[in-house]
Write a structure and sequence with these properties.
By secondary structure, this protein is mainly α. A two-stranded antiparallel sheet has the order 1-2. The protein has a two-stranded antiparallel sheet with strand order 3-4. The longest helix has 18 residues, at 51-68. 50% of the residues lie in helices and 9% in strands.
Length: 181
Amino acid sequence: MIFAPDTEASLRSVVNLLNTNAGLVDRLETVADLDYYLDTERFTGARARNLAELRSVRQLRAQLHDIWIAEEDTAVRRVNAILRNAQALPQLIKHDGWDYHLHATTQSAPLYDRMAVEAAMAIAEVIRSKGLERLRICASSDCRAALVDLSRNRSKMYCDTGNCANREHVRAYRARKSGNS
Protein backbone atom coordinates (compact mmCIF):
# COMPACT_ATOMS: atom_id res chain seq x y z
CA MET A 1 0.00 0.00 0.00
CA ILE A 2 1.38 3.40 -0.98
CA PHE A 3 -1.21 5.58 0.75
CA ALA A 4 -3.98 4.94 3.26
CA PRO A 5 -7.08 3.39 1.66
CA ASP A 6 -9.16 6.56 2.11
CA THR A 7 -6.41 8.65 0.47
CA GLU A 8 -6.28 6.29 -2.51
CA ALA A 9 -10.08 6.40 -2.80
CA SER A 10 -10.02 10.20 -2.69
CA LEU A 11 -7.31 10.36 -5.35
CA ARG A 12 -9.31 8.04 -7.62
CA SER A 13 -12.36 10.22 -7.07
CA VAL A 14 -10.34 13.29 -8.09
CA VAL A 15 -9.13 11.46 -11.20
CA ASN A 16 -12.73 10.57 -12.06
CA LEU A 17 -13.81 14.18 -11.52
CA LEU A 18 -10.98 15.51 -13.70
CA ASN A 19 -11.79 12.97 -16.38
CA THR A 20 -15.38 14.16 -16.67
CA ASN A 21 -13.81 16.83 -18.88
CA ALA A 22 -11.01 14.83 -20.54
CA GLY A 23 -12.89 13.66 -23.61
CA LEU A 24 -14.69 15.37 -26.42
CA VAL A 25 -17.83 15.74 -24.31
CA ASP A 26 -18.01 17.34 -20.87
CA ARG A 27 -19.71 14.73 -18.67
CA LEU A 28 -20.53 17.28 -15.96
CA GLU A 29 -22.93 19.65 -17.68
CA THR A 30 -26.16 19.09 -15.78
CA VAL A 31 -27.28 18.59 -12.20
CA ALA A 32 -28.19 15.03 -13.23
CA ASP A 33 -24.59 14.52 -14.42
CA LEU A 34 -23.34 15.72 -11.04
CA ASP A 35 -25.77 13.40 -9.24
CA TYR A 36 -24.52 10.50 -11.36
CA TYR A 37 -20.88 11.33 -10.58
CA LEU A 38 -21.55 11.69 -6.84
CA ASP A 39 -23.59 8.48 -6.71
CA THR A 40 -20.93 6.57 -8.65
CA GLU A 41 -18.26 7.85 -6.27
CA ARG A 42 -20.52 7.02 -3.29
CA PHE A 43 -20.16 10.58 -2.02
CA THR A 44 -22.15 11.14 1.15
CA GLY A 45 -23.52 14.20 2.87
CA ALA A 46 -25.82 17.09 2.07
CA ARG A 47 -26.48 18.02 -1.56
CA ALA A 48 -28.35 21.04 -2.86
CA ARG A 49 -28.90 19.52 -6.33
CA ASN A 50 -28.98 22.90 -8.06
CA LEU A 51 -27.08 24.85 -10.72
CA ALA A 52 -25.02 26.79 -8.18
CA GLU A 53 -23.72 23.53 -6.74
CA LEU A 54 -22.96 22.22 -10.23
CA ARG A 55 -21.04 25.42 -11.06
CA SER A 56 -19.05 25.15 -7.84
CA VAL A 57 -18.04 21.55 -8.59
CA ARG A 58 -17.07 22.50 -12.15
CA GLN A 59 -14.94 25.30 -10.65
CA LEU A 60 -13.39 22.78 -8.25
CA ARG A 61 -12.60 20.51 -11.19
CA ALA A 62 -10.62 23.33 -12.82
CA GLN A 63 -8.83 24.12 -9.55
CA LEU A 64 -7.88 20.48 -9.05
CA HIS A 65 -6.65 20.20 -12.64
CA ASP A 66 -4.36 23.16 -12.01
CA ILE A 67 -3.04 21.49 -8.86
CA TRP A 68 -2.66 18.16 -10.70
CA ILE A 69 -0.22 19.64 -13.21
CA ALA A 70 1.47 22.18 -10.89
CA GLU A 71 4.99 22.21 -9.55
CA GLU A 72 5.29 21.30 -5.87
CA ASP A 73 5.43 24.83 -4.39
CA THR A 74 2.44 25.95 -6.44
CA ALA A 75 0.49 22.79 -5.56
CA VAL A 76 1.24 23.37 -1.86
CA ARG A 77 -0.01 26.98 -2.01
CA ARG A 78 -3.22 25.92 -3.76
CA VAL A 79 -3.88 22.98 -1.44
CA ASN A 80 -3.29 25.18 1.61
CA ALA A 81 -5.67 27.81 0.21
CA ILE A 82 -8.43 25.22 -0.17
CA LEU A 83 -7.92 23.96 3.38
CA ARG A 84 -7.75 27.50 4.81
CA ASN A 85 -10.82 28.75 2.92
CA ALA A 86 -12.90 25.80 4.10
CA GLN A 87 -11.60 26.17 7.66
CA ALA A 88 -10.68 22.49 7.57
CA LEU A 89 -10.51 20.81 10.96
CA PRO A 90 -9.24 17.22 10.56
CA GLN A 91 -10.85 14.60 12.74
CA LEU A 92 -11.14 10.82 12.75
CA ILE A 93 -14.51 9.50 11.53
CA LYS A 94 -15.91 6.00 10.98
CA HIS A 95 -18.89 5.55 8.62
CA ASP A 96 -20.43 3.57 5.75
CA GLY A 97 -18.16 0.54 6.16
CA TRP A 98 -14.96 2.59 6.35
CA ASP A 99 -12.79 2.21 9.43
CA TYR A 100 -11.39 5.38 11.02
CA HIS A 101 -10.20 7.89 8.46
CA LEU A 102 -9.81 11.66 8.29
CA HIS A 103 -12.57 14.10 7.49
CA ALA A 104 -11.96 17.80 7.77
CA THR A 105 -15.49 19.09 7.19
CA THR A 106 -18.88 18.10 8.50
CA GLN A 107 -21.36 16.12 6.43
CA SER A 108 -23.58 19.22 6.39
CA ALA A 109 -20.86 21.47 4.88
CA PRO A 110 -21.51 22.59 1.29
CA LEU A 111 -20.66 19.98 -1.33
CA TYR A 112 -17.88 22.16 -2.78
CA ASP A 113 -16.16 22.41 0.62
CA ARG A 114 -16.45 18.68 1.32
CA MET A 115 -15.17 17.69 -2.11
CA ALA A 116 -12.42 20.32 -2.16
CA VAL A 117 -11.13 19.49 1.31
CA GLU A 118 -11.22 15.74 0.69
CA ALA A 119 -9.23 16.23 -2.51
CA ALA A 120 -6.83 18.69 -0.86
CA MET A 121 -6.20 16.32 2.06
CA ALA A 122 -5.40 13.47 -0.34
CA ILE A 123 -3.12 15.64 -2.47
CA ALA A 124 -1.45 16.96 0.70
CA GLU A 125 -0.62 13.37 1.61
CA VAL A 126 0.85 12.82 -1.86
CA ILE A 127 2.99 15.95 -1.47
CA ARG A 128 4.11 14.95 2.06
CA SER A 129 5.17 11.57 0.67
CA LYS A 130 7.20 13.24 -2.09
CA GLY A 131 4.95 11.58 -4.64
CA LEU A 132 3.61 14.52 -6.65
CA GLU A 133 4.95 12.93 -9.84
CA ARG A 134 2.36 10.18 -9.28
CA LEU A 135 -0.33 12.68 -10.34
CA ARG A 136 -0.13 12.63 -14.11
CA ILE A 137 -1.82 13.25 -17.40
CA CYS A 138 -2.01 10.26 -19.74
CA ALA A 139 1.10 9.89 -21.91
CA SER A 140 -0.94 8.88 -24.97
CA SER A 141 -0.59 11.40 -27.76
CA ASP A 142 -4.35 11.67 -28.23
CA CYS A 143 -5.53 11.67 -24.60
CA ARG A 144 -5.57 14.26 -21.84
CA ALA A 145 -7.10 12.18 -19.06
CA ALA A 146 -5.72 12.39 -15.54
CA LEU A 147 -4.34 9.39 -13.72
CA VAL A 148 -2.80 8.59 -10.38
CA ASP A 149 0.12 6.16 -10.48
CA LEU A 150 -0.24 3.86 -7.49
CA SER A 151 2.27 1.32 -8.82
CA ARG A 152 5.27 0.47 -6.66
CA ASN A 153 7.79 1.43 -9.31
CA ARG A 154 6.01 4.62 -10.38
CA SER A 155 5.75 3.41 -13.98
CA LYS A 156 2.09 3.88 -14.90
CA MET A 157 1.94 6.14 -17.96
CA TYR A 158 -1.54 5.63 -19.39
CA CYS A 159 -5.03 6.29 -18.05
CA ASP A 160 -7.80 3.79 -17.45
CA THR A 161 -10.44 5.71 -19.41
CA GLY A 162 -9.91 3.90 -22.70
CA ASN A 163 -7.38 1.69 -24.38
CA CYS A 164 -4.55 4.22 -24.37
CA ALA A 165 -1.80 1.80 -23.32
CA ASN A 166 -2.89 -0.73 -25.94
CA ARG A 167 -3.12 1.92 -28.69
CA GLU A 168 0.34 3.29 -27.86
CA HIS A 169 1.86 -0.20 -27.83
CA VAL A 170 0.30 -0.95 -31.23
CA ARG A 171 1.64 2.36 -32.60
CA ALA A 172 5.13 1.57 -31.32
CA TYR A 173 4.95 -1.96 -32.77
CA ARG A 174 3.84 -0.66 -36.16
CA ALA A 175 6.56 1.99 -36.11
CA ARG A 176 9.17 -0.67 -35.39
CA LYS A 177 7.78 -2.93 -38.13
CA SER A 178 7.72 -0.15 -40.72
CA GLY A 179 11.31 0.75 -39.83
CA ASN A 180 12.45 -2.85 -40.46
CA SER A 181 10.90 -3.06 -43.95
